[in-house]
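Design job #97: recover the sequence.
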């Protein structure tokens, strides 16, 4: 509220209707989804406003989402994302018989180099040119995800990435407004990544933020100095099942902790989290007081032995501070 931005959390972190309801109770204006099945679940369960931040290229998926939103009395806003003429053609084909005014975001690549168009790419204007003459689609704004912030060295680097993202997005918006001012009513700017939103100092020109992991926090913002130990809201309790000279083995492996090394596989660390003894546990204060989760197989976690492991025995319990919370709630 202080920044004057709308909050539209990414629900891939929790995929939970109850958690989403709590986010809305604290001011969220809608949800961000990655895949069609996520959007369908939330639309059918009362979501009023949904943005698909993932470029959809299959008209059938778009039609299913629009059909669900028409059948749901509560959903009055479903937005889609494009970064290619092919994707736009799919949207156009899927909405041939839909109501007019379907909002579309153009995805901008601000450094992650996953999806999106680089600022200055002529394709941005080409997509916008088609959108302003479309009967059923309308250019709603531009959307970005500075996911490279997950591999930053510290909070200061995250703040720098956030500001570079903001400047790039404001410039792209201004270019669109200058070129299509007589045919555009508004161009919104939507950004989103938990590290950048925790570190961001300047919100000028930003209309909406879409963080996801912030709802639970994890080892990454803790490592970056952007979250305190008491803000970690999700952890995993496991049991020691075997001990050898090198490792303490627990009964939580990749199916529970996830083998993802942070978002986009770039967490800035080589571990999968940190485990702490349940006995005497007083919060996730420091990796020095925990055991590094060095490796994972499907059903086993390998904790590297060190001074923190002491005389751990089979049957002892540990609490694991997750490296990355997005996969864990829905997979465990």
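Job complete. Output follows.
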């Amino acid at each position: 509220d202080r920044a004057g931005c709308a909050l539209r959390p990414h629900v891939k972190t929790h995929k939970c209707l109850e958690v989403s309801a709590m986010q809305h109770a604290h001011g969220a204006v809608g949800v961000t989804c990655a895949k069609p099945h996520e959007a369908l679940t939330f639309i059918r369960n009362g979501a009023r406003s949904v943005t698909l931040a993932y470029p959809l290229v299959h008209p059938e998926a778009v039609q299913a989402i629009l059909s669900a939103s028409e059948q749901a009395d509560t959903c009055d806003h479903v937005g889609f994302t494009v970064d290619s003429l092919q994707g736009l053609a799919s949207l156009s084909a899927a909405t041939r018989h839909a109501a007019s005014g379907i909002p579309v975001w153009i995805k901008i690549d601000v450094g992650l180099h996953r999806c999106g168009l680089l600022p200055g790419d002529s394709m941005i204007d080409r997509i916008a040119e088609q959108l302003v003459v479309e009967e059923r689609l309308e250019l709603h704004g531009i959307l970005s995800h500075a996911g490279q912030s997950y591999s930053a060295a510290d909070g200061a680097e995250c703040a720098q990435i956030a500001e570079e993202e903001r400047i790039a997005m404001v410039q792209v918006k201004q270019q669109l407004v200058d070129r299509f001012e007589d045919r555009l009513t508004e161009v919104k700017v939507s950004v989103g990544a938990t590290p950048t939103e925790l570190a961001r100092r300047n919100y000028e020109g930003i209309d909406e933020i879409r963080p996801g992991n912030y709802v639970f926090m994890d080892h990454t913002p803790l490592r970056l100095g952007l979250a305190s130990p008491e803000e970690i809201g999700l952890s995993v309790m496991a049991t020691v099942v075997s001990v050898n000279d090198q490792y303490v083995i627990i009964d939580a492996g990749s199916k529970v902790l996830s083998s993802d090394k942070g978002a986009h596989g770039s967490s800035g660390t080589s571990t999968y989290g940190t485990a702490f003894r349940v006995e005497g546990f007083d919060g996730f204060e420091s990796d020095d007081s925990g055991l590094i989760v060095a490796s994972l197989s499907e059903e086993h976690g390998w904790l590297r032995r060190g001074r923190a492991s002491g005389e751990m025995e089979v049957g002892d319990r540990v609490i694991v501070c997750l490296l990355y919370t997005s996969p864990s709630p829905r997979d465990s």
